[in-house]
Specification:
rod-shaped; 3-stranded antiparallel β-sheet; about 120 residues; 2 domains; about 20% strand; alpha+beta
């Protein structure tokens, strides 16, 4: 009789363990699904590139304006205009270009690919 209880206990433990692992797996699937931006609205430069650069600069004169830097380069706008250039996302949100870069909503390479004119200098 005692051997039957031990076997029954082990069986219950295995069932609970399998249920626990299944719950963890399902939870991980939901986390991964959410991180891709399909369930949550996130701005990830690798996942979302649905924006338009809107440049309302009236006149481009004066010296270059520092915009951004990475490990190898410093990027400058041809003239002081960071408050006149913004990104308009497909959902209607707008961000100044400098804020979008600093908040990592977009990468400098993506901006250049979308037509932003910058001057790039090695550090």
């Amino acid at each position: 009789m005692e051997g039957g209880r031990v076997m029954k206990g082990r069986l219950i433990f295995k069932v609970v363990f399998v249920i626990f692992l299944t719950a963890i797996l399902i939870g991980l699937i939901f986390i991964i699904y959410d991180k891709t931006g399909t369930a949550a609205h996130i701005y990830d430069p690798l996942l979302i590139s649905d924006y338009v650069i809107v440049n309302e600069t009236k006149e481009c004169s004066g010296e270059e304006e520092y915009l951004y830097e990475d490990d190898n380069y410093k990027y400058y706008l041809p003239c002081p205009s960071s408050y006149d250039i913004y990104l308009e996302w497909t959902d209607g949100d707008k961000d100044l270009i400098k804020n979008a870069l600093n908040n990592k909503k977009v990468s400098i390479n993506s901006l250049i690919e979308h037509g932003l004119i910058v001057k790039k200098y090695e550090k």
